[in-house]
Amino acid sequence: MNDVPALNPGDLLLYKDNQLIAFNKPPSIAVQSVNSMDFHKMAMAYAKRNLYILHRLDQPTSGVVLFARNPKAAAIISKQIKDRKIERTYFAIVNKKPPEQAGELRNYLVKSKRSNKSYVVDSKQKGALEAIMEYQLLGHSDRYHLLKIQLKTGRHHQIRAQLANVGCHIKGDVKYGSRRSNPDRSIHLHASNLLFNHPVSDDQVSITAEPPEDTLWQYFSALMKTLPA
Known about the structure:
Elements: E1 13-16, E2 20-25, H1 39-47, E3 52-53, E4 62-68, H2 71-82, E5 87-94, E6 102-112, E7 117-121, E8 129-140, E9 145-151, H3 158-165, E10 189-197, E11 204-208, H4 215-219
Parallel strand pairs: 4-10
Antiparallel strand pairs: 1-2, 2-4, 3-4, 5-9, 5-10, 6-7, 6-8, 8-9, 10-11
């Protein structure tokens, strides 16, 4: 996809200090791309300095994306991510109820470079990485269900692959089994909140991003207020 929406990162700013900067990334733009403009480049143009990528969101996914403004902050936050000390909350709108009202999905995933997909495999398969997420069913409409997800590991396409594996296809995600794409080629997966310790003060920082302004997200908006404190 080479189409890049016209964006002003300043309108998407969620948090900024001399160590970190965070934005609410819209769907349909990559955090980083080799062949076209991406959100990282736009964010650096806005900040007028180099920014260090700490994590990525899939191109059709919306929500909080955090950058470091210097190498030391990048190293500290990256270690928190590696040590699983950052809390990452997502919301997903899916076509079917999960196996239980709340639970944990624990699988092993392998990424295929050829298809740019991740697949659930046996733990003994070469290259398999453990993927862990917790979910909670919050509510439903006539056709869809809202899940709150706590991501424990950060594997390639993890939420999309694990949910598809239990028959819960994210709305619009044709790559992982949804019957129809969304008109803007987004998927209904939103990175809603990051909770971490500040790299200098060590104070807890919570950054929250509102979902895109479409009818289905707005329908579920009241149920999405149950975020980490």
